[in-house]
Amino acid sequence: MEKIKTYNDLLETIKNKEKFLLYIKSEGCSVCEADFPRVKEIVDENNYTSYYIQADEMAEAVGQLNLYTAPVVILFYNGKEIHRQARIIDFLELDYRIKQTL
After folding, report:
1. Which 3-state string (H, E, C) describes the chain?
2. What is the CA radius of gyration of the chain?
3. Structure confidence by residue, pLDDT tens digits, 40-61
C-alpha cells in the first residue's frame, strides 16, 4: 500500500485512477494499526490498487473528505466514492465491495 503525501497527489489519484482503495489512519490510533494489515491483505488477495494517508499530515483531506474518525476505508471508482467504512471496519463487506468492482 503506497502512501500519498500531499492533498494535490490525492486529488490526482482520484482523478486519474479508475478504481482504488484509500485507507486513512491517524497517529497514535491502535485500531488503525491493527486494521491496516488486514485491509492490506484483502487488497493484495484481490490485486486491487490501494493507497493510504496519514490524517494528521493532511488537514485539507480531512476537511474535504469529511474524515471525522479513524480508521476510514474509502473505495473510489471513476473518480467517485462508492463505499465508505469508518471506525469499525467490516472486512467481509469490504472484500465483497472490492469484488463488485473487479
Report:
1. CEECCCHHHHHHHHHHCCEEEEEEECCCCHHHHHHHHHHHHHHHHCCCCEEEEEHHHCHHHHHHCCCCCCCEEEEEECCEEEEEEECCCCHHHHHHHHHHHC
2. 12
3. 999 999 999 999 999 999 989 8
Backbone angles phi and psi of 72, in degrees to 5: -130, 140
Rounded Cα distance between 33 and 35, Å, is: 6
Pairing of strands 19-25, 72-77: antiparallel
pLDDT at 3: 95
Round to whole Å and give the CA distance between 58 and 30.
19
pTM above 0.85, yes or no: yes
pLDDT for position 7: 93
| pLDDT reading at 68 higher than 90 | no
Q: Kindly list the strands in the beta sheet with 72-77, ordered across the sheet, starting from the edge strand earlier in the chain.
A: 2-3, 50-54, 19-25, 72-77, 80-86
Residue type, 21: L
